[in-house]
Design a protein that fits this description.
By secondary structure, this protein is mostly helical. The protein has helices at residues 2-20, 34-51, 72-75, 102-131, 141-157, 173-176, 184-187, 190-201, 210-217, 224-231, 240-246, and strands at 62-65, 89-92, 97-100. It has one domain (2-246). The protein has a three-stranded mixed sheet with strand order 1-3-2. A hairpin with a 4-residue loop joins strand 2 and strand 3 (97-100). Helix 1 crosses helix 4 (102-131), helix 4 packs across helix 5 (141-157) and helix 8 packs across helix 10 (224-231).
Length: 280
């Protein structure tokens, strides 16, 4: 197990700068295990956190790679909502920690490199942002997870020095394979998660608001052609031609510069209905 973990960390190091387009960081290969890779990625994402007005004043959660055999639910004190097959990370509200399952993360890193690290750390960071709202939204479980994907996309895209990926389909890989079809009702569909992540990147006509994410969970978006194209994506390796049409680069809009900011969750894009109440 230890050898597999180290191998996964070394493989992700080789992909780190290329995947996120970040400035190279000085490292020693013999110290490049999964734990150091997680902390390096967390440091990069912390810069996005500190730069966004919505999170700059919030305490940044500690990022912890759990010991082998310690599950997310146990680490967070038995929170029932963490019982989702395939889930790699979670935010523990009581201790303000982001915890990661080392075995599952190593498998995802082996396939998706540094994008997997950024995706799973950032979706948990997004949960911490959403969980701190003074009046959390009454979203369905699927819409809430889509909103976390969207906020994760905002934080990933705002990493200082980030450049557009050479292959625009790469960032979507972790979102596409995050959960199986049996978890659709709770975590959204593959194309919905990809669309939410792209929305955080600024590459769709939607926002991360409650209304937009509730509508997305029901299949309603301001640019249905994009969602329809994402429906055709089986995995990121077979989707380069589709991404040539869709793209993952931020599109500046009125009152929505690039990179995007987290913004207000009770707003909605034109043509998207707002949720009725914020009572969760």
């Amino acid at each position: 197990m230890r050898e597999r973990t180290v191998a996964g960390g070394i493989a992700s190091l080789a992909l780190a700068a290329w995947c996120l387009g970040l400035p190279p960081l000085a490292t020693r290969v013999h110290a490049a295990d999964l734990a150091s890779d997680v902390q390096r990625t967390a440091q990069q994402l912390r810069q996005s956190w500190s730069a966004d007005p919505a999170t700059a004043s919030l305490p940044f959660p500690s990022i912890e790679l759990l010991p082998a055999g310690v599950g997310l639910q146990t680490a967070c004190g038995g929170t029932a909502q963490l019982e989702v097959p395939g889930r790699v990370s979670a935010w523990c509200p009581g201790s303000n920690r982001v915890v990661l399952d080392p075995s599952l993360l190593a498998l995802r890193v082996k396939t998706h490199g540094d994008w997997a690290l950024a995706y799973w750390i950032d979706t948990a960071l997004a949960e911490s942002v959403l969980g701190r709202q003074s009046s959390a939204s009454a979203l369905s479980p699927a819409a809430a997870n889509l909103q976390a994907n969207c906020v994760a996309g905002v934080l990933i895209a705002a990493v200082p020095g980030r450049k557009p990926p050479a292959q625009e389909e790469k960032p979507l890989g972790p979102a596409l394979v995050a959960y199986g079809a049996s978890q659709t009702a709770r975590m959204g569909t593959r194309p919905q998660r990809a669309y939410a992540l792209l929305t955080g990147f600024g590459a769709t006509g939607a926002s991360c608001s409650d209304g937009d994410m509730a509508a997305l969970a029901n299949g309603t978006v301001p640019d249905p052609a994009t969602l329809a194209q994402l429906e055709q994506m089986r995995d990121e390796r077979a989707s380069s031609s589709l991404m040539a049409v869709i793209g993952s680069r931020c599109r500046p809009r009125a009152n929505a510069p690039c990179p995007r900011r987290i913004g207000a969750f009770n707003a909605a894009s034109p043509g998207i209905p707002k949720p009725s109440t914020r009572t969760r």
